[in-house]
Design brief:
475 residues; alpha/beta; Spore Coat Polysaccharide Biosynthesis Protein SpsA, Chain A; Jelly Rolls; 3 domains; 6-stranded antiparallel beta sheet; 5-stranded mixed β-barrel; RmlC-like_jellyroll; Mannose-6P_isomerase_type2; nucleotidyltransferase; GTP binding; transferase
Amino acid sequence: MTKKIVPVIMAGGKGTRLWPLSRAAAPKQFIQFIGDKTLFQETLQRVSDPALYEAPVVLTNEEFRFLVAEQARELDIGLAAILLEPVARNTAAAVAAAATLVSKRFDQDTIMHVLGSDYEIVADDTYFDCVRIAAATAAEGKLVTFGIQPTEPATGYGYIEGGEALTTGARVVARFIEKPPLAKAEEMLAAGSFYWNSGMFMFSVSCLLDELRTHAPETIKAAGEAVANAKTDLDFTRLDRSAFSAAPNISIDYAIMEKTSNAAVVPSPFKWSDLGSWDSVWKSGSRDEHGNVAAANTTVVNTKNSLIMTHGVHLAVQGMDDIAVIASEDAVYVGRLQDSQDVGSIVKMLAAAPSTSQLTETHPTSYRPWGGYTSVLNGDRFQVKRIFVTPGKKLSLQKHHHRSEHWIVVKGTAEVTIGENVQMLRENESVYIPLGEIHRLANPGKIMLELIEVQTGSYLGEDDIIRIVDEFGRS
């Protein structure tokens, strides 16, 4: 039993509207835009007050599980559970599974705060005032959503019309409105009683489960069975694939919020953005006297009202207006900010071509439970990588059929196993791993281990790994 709020963070989305930084295998919630934390980490920090919140439950998928665990570890924030969705089934099934888990761990009166991991929010006093109003309203049996006070006639958001005022400070939901045309959005902005639908919710577990049984019985049945038959894997809880796959692919808005007679909205004037396009990143950023939002490693001359960001090469931009210039490690996007809602069409074109499809899927840097690697150079029968290993972590004991490897330590200390031999390597020392030899790399030190790996051989794919022993359950 708890009197605190249980946060439920949705972190499984694979959007690519912020390409080239956001990609299918590393979407926007796990990317640093401007600042030293990702959107997911900022979400964790908003629910980290132990006087208000229990440890969060995170819903994600198989592909992102180690990103979730590592980014929480970086902040030293403990998680109550990491639920892995075996297939994508939108938010209704995910929230139903989380509610089922919370009801088992706490009780039916527990208040859940459901929130996305990819919003930018200024968590000031106004924000937490809205959180407390929502919690008080949920405790009275309402299913609560946060309605953002609109600042412009945006056509990219759904809207909520607020009705009768409640004693808690919330309002009854009069109706939900789909994304409107501009003229309709202007009318609603002028009326003053309409709000952007934020996708954040607050409700008691018992009220939510009751509404699911009434309005979405197939969803709650599938979610309940998926939790009942879930498997524990390291720090993760794997929802049962067969049961979860049976859930309808529907959002919590359509499944419950638009059907219930108990919906309430908290008018929320805090700063919020779903960062759904480069234009919205520019609007939410800190602009200079020329209207530019420019990240580090950029030089901007005679340019105004533009967004300049890089995660790789230095960017020099001159004589531009209303332009987004975004550079990742291996791709650059240039376009007008006013057209940035259409980046998705470019991503579809890139994904359809075999020569560029990889640019929409993965970054040169990939993360693993032990650290990760960056692909530096690829050639015919050779590949160069930068490998980084977190202190105390080790890779699997493994071998390769088609390649040999050369390791050169550039930072930290490496424990290297080759066959029956174990040796320590320090900075500027190297070792050779013959083709077919059993080997392992570990970081026994207190700082990050970094090394350069040169692979040579007839086939260099990631699937040429035979894992013999693996502490992450991959052997």
